[in-house]
Amino acid sequence: MKRTPFIAMMVLLFSLFTGFAHAEPATININTADIETLASLNGIGQSKAEAIVAYRDANGPFQSRNDLTNVKGIGERTVEKNAERLTVE
């Protein structure tokens, strides 16, 4: 009895599952992201996401991701935790 197709299928499934587990999260442009997208960031909930959008609307686009610390309730630690996911374009 040949086991090659079964083994090949198992290897393929294993590689698919491990690939998904190590996938990088998408980057988020803080100048264009909506509230729902911003709320997906680590340490940013609905109210902080709303504060980001309100700040952006009142003050114009962010020049750097560190400008997020100008938003009330967002500190340097929150920006550091999300640094890999944040972009400004």
From TrEMBL:
Pfam families: HHH_3
Source taxon at top rank: Bacteria
Residue spans crossing the bilayer: none
GO CC term, one of those recorded: type II protein secretion system complex
PANTHER family, per the entry: ENDONUCLEASE/EXONUCLEASE/PHOSPHATASE FAMILY DOMAIN-CONTAINING PROTEIN 1, ENDONUCLEASE_EXONUCLEASE_PHOSPHATASE FAMILY DOMAIN-CONTAINING PROTEIN 1
GO terms assigned for molecular function: DNA binding
Keyword terms, alphabetized: Signal
Species whose genome carries this gene: Marinobacter algicola DG893
Domain Helix-hairpin-helix DNA-binding motif class: 36-55, 66-85
Keyword Transport annotated: no
InterPro entries assigned: Competence_ComEA_HhH (IPR004509), Endo/Exo/Phosphatase_dom_1 (IPR051675), Hlx-hairpin-Hlx_DNA-bd_motif (IPR003583), RuvA_2-like (IPR010994)
Signal sequence coordinates: 1-23
UniProt-recorded name of the protein: ComE operon protein
Gene Ontology annotations of biological process type: DNA repair; protein secretion by the type II secretion system
NCBIfam families, per database record: competence protein ComEA helix-hairpin-helix repeat region
